[in-house]
Amino acid sequence: MKRMKGSKKRRLKTWLWSAFLLLGLLPSCYEPESGCLDNEALNYSLDADRSCSDCCEYPSLRLDVQHRFTRDSLVQGILPSNTVHIDDFDQAFRFKSIRFFLNKLHLLDASGNPLMVEEELPLVVIEGSRIRLDTVEDNFALVDVSNLSDYTIGTIRGGGQFNGLSFDLGLTDPASKADIDEVPVDHPLDAPELYLSDEEGYVFFKMELYRDTTQATLDSVSVQIDRTTSLPDFNFPIDFFLNPGFNSEVVLRINYADLLAGVNVRTDSAEEMYQKIVNNLTNSFLVIDVTADN
Fold it and tell me: Is the pLDDT of residue 225 over 90?
């Protein structure tokens, strides 16, 4: 067996040491990447090696409300104090304002279980002479016909197949009895113009309209629905699959021609309008679409 010459030995040793040194340096050059490792988050990262601290951003449930006046194939938008509409008795009128609360907007699975929002709202509840503390799901929208923006209801986590959608018009207990002075500023419940008193609570729905379109004889009437009214349940069948980590948006359309069916804006009293509107509520709301995006 031939002996390896010294120069070759030295070259081989140098190469081996260089290789070992290079291998030893490789791990020190790699820096682990931190990111969101929750697959229910909007910013879920497949490339992250370790979880970040409070960096996950979760999807939201949003509401898009379409205000329409559709009668005899004529579709009109609702522009308060501007657009002229015609009632069932061929009387011209205009809306002055429309505001109402929506509460507990939920996607429902096949068993009827709701996908609830993550946020909770502490309330000071007034019940006669008694005051107590309570906490509810912070799932509210104050819908205003003058607002052209979507409403963000809250944060949602999870997904799957949903077969129904439900919401309440107005406010359910205990929110209907909340002390408005203890409600956070800019929250939907922070609506003094819809708050009657500590004893009576909130107005759930308020519509004001001008009985005539002639400026010289402008006469308005107001219709209010409060917690003394028995309101219908709003449940709609849907076929919607939501992947975890995606925002969802409900598109809800209200047809005010259906809401005012049988109303004579010129001659009906506020009480007569109120009774007819309450009877028409169920047929006036329609879920147009439920969409998802990230």
Answer: yes
- State the average pLDDT over residues 188-204: 95
Distance CA 287, CA 76 (A): 18
Containing domain of residue 25, as a range?
6-51
- Cβ–Cβ under 8 Å, residues 231 and 225: yes
**Mean pLDDT value across residues 140-163:** 95
Residue 1 belongs to some domain of the structure: no
Same domain, 241 and 121: yes
Taking the C-alpha atoms of residue 35 and residue 38, their distance in angstroms, rounded to an integer, is 9
* Burial tier of 215 (Cβ tally within 10 Å: 0-12, 13-18, 19+): exposed
Same-domain status, 129 and 256: yes
10 Å CB burial of residue 50 (0-12, 13-18, 19+) is exposed
Question: What pTM was computed for the model?
Answer: 0.84
277 pLDDT exceeds 50? Answer: yes
Cβ neighbours of residue 32 under 8 Å, at least 6 residues apart? 49, 50
Shortest CA distance to 289 belongs to which of 243, 249, 244?
Answer: 249
Q: What is the average pLDDT across 38-63?
A: 87
